Please model this.
Amino acid sequence: MKFFKQVVFAITATLITLNVFGQANPFINVLPNNSGIVAVGCPLDIIVTIGNTGPVSAVAQAKLRPIIQVPASVTFLPTAQQTGLPFGWTILSNNGSQIRVCNSTDPIPVSTSRTIILKVQGVTVTPPQTFSGNINFGNGTTCSAGTSVAGDLATDNSALSTIEVIAAPSLTITSALTPFSTSSGVPSSEQNFMLSGTNIVEDIIVNAPTGFEVSNTSGAGFAPAVTISPVGGILSNYPVYIRLAASTTLGNISGNVINASVSPTCVAPQNISVTGSITAFPLSLTLNNFSVNSDNCIAHLNWSTSSETNIEKFEIEKSETNNVKWETIGSVIAQSNSSIHSKYYFKDENIFINNKLMYRLKMIEKDGSFIYSQTLNTLIKCDEQNLSVFPNPVANGKLFVSLNGAENVVANLTTVTGQQIKKVVLKKGKNNIDVSDLSNGVYILSAKFVTGINQNIKINIQ
Model:
């Protein structure tokens, strides 16, 4: 009897222990980005990690309502700008110095965690000061205050870190830029300006205006924008290189190079104006004429040149009138004969419907320099000559072919390998072809119209 009582006591103690210590254990950590250094007027992310070490149960939804408090040297951004909460979490309150959040609809399973990113902004210059994160508990339904979870260890319900606020950043430009000039298709010579700044805790983005390009390396890496990362928050006469891009637009252009931080409210953008002119490249040829005409879905391009000495080739580019995206559809090797007029021709057969198209020539010299011709607009008309079949797949050995816009068109029925099976002459309108003597399978019905257009239709006989 005594032994039985001891066993019952041991089991009861074990169950009590599991009930108290074996359920869920939430924890919190807080860590600022950028080693906790933020400038006056600049944002800083505070990374809050909340998890559950278990070992048995999940932390129920609406059960955690942690609070993060910061010193007066910084302030939390308004709730509308706090976009770093995981799904199922909400902000209960935000008065600038503290934010309270809740896992409203997000239970936290064992051995998992959630990351919350909260944004603060520097207000007053101060040395490192402590901020804290503390777990408080909800009622499990409405996020109102409640009791702790079974198994919680209070030792990891709070965390500390530090924030240091430095003086507001500054950014200045030293420049002596002169107007740029170049020829069409060739980038201009580069110039540079200098950026200097202090307390810059974010990257600076340098954006070039249209027609220009920038780089942080002389002679290479030019692009519409470049990113500069200050070292220790300092820029000291950092060179930014700028030039006119290899544009095809002729004339004068101008704009502002915009130098701004990732967060414009942190560093006031600094602009520098640039101007330039692009003139026609002096190619070693004279384009005497360039024309396009069409018939039956084919565009015929003709052009002639004189004084042609160093031209390598002509590339033909095409675009739909309602689409300014140009594509290269072919090229013609130059004759490079300066003593006579040279004539050229190109045929564009890759047209299938009536359409308004634009064509231009890209005239390329042997050293890679180039210039564009004027743009030609043309309306391509395709004759409405076509045939159609029904039914397809073919049943009962009867194939009907409808011919539109033509008369007495020869059609061939072949195997997919090209072996001719039948040859018929189609009249305008409905035609009947007897295929009852053919084996089941796939065949090709092809016809060539007087316009030169071929039409092939796959026929499935069952």
Observations:
- The chain has four domains: 18-166, 170-279, 286-380, 386-461.
